[in-house]
Design goal:
mainly alpha; Four Helix Bundle (Hemerythrin (Met), subunit A); about 0% strand
């Protein structure tokens, strides 16, 4: 007499296990926050800037530098057609967190007139970066790996815009040095 239950469909079981593992991994990343954020040293104080301008540069420049570094790494992952959703998400969380910090600072403290155009460039670049990250996450979660190459120009453009904003911020903050 056979008392064991009938065999399950192996394909359905494997799919369910993979889905469960992805869910557990994503939950772990969300809970952990995607990794530690490193903040670079701010640019040296410029005696020709006002106190508000110095404070803006001191707060924004190290965060923007890190966003640029993170975007460079993410762009490399996308160009390599990496399927590592965990790495992408770790970098994505850092980019999103830092972008929000920069934008919140400007909203709460105001953006000095000297940096109004650079702040607009930072906001545009951050939006492009965070939108690109979300599209890549959506693509990887649905296992539509063929859509990754289409995101390469979008990531490259976001990286270029943020790098240009960082260069402009540095140039404007060094006036008279």
């Amino acid at each position: 007499m056979n008392t064991s239950s009938p065999p399950r469909n192996a394909v359905a079981t494997t799919g369910l296990v993979l889905l469960l593992l992805l869910g557990i991994g994503a939950a772990g990343i969300i809970v952990a926050g995607g990794g530690a954020t490193r903040i670079y040293e701010p640019l040296p104080a410029n005696t020709t800037l006002s106190a508000d301008e110095d404070a803006y540069v001191a707060y924004v420049s190290p965060r923007l530098q890190e966003i640029v570094d993170e975007m460079t790494q993410v762009t490399t992952l996308v160009r390599q057609r990496s399927r590592n959703i965990f790495k992408l998400n770790t970098h994505g969380v850092r980019i999103t967190t830092l972008a929000a910090e920069i934008q919140d600072y400007g909203d709460q403290h105001g953006v000095p007139r000297r940096f109004a155009t650079v702040d607009a460039s930072i906001r545009d670049g951050c939006k492009l970066a965070t939108d690109s990250i979300q599209e890549a996450r959506d693509t990887l979660i649905t296992f539509d790996f063929s859509a990754i190459p289409a995101l390469i120009p979008q990531f490259a453009q976001g990286s270029q815009e943020l790098t240009a904003a960082l260069t402009e911020l540095r140039d404007l903050s060094r006036v008279g040095m």
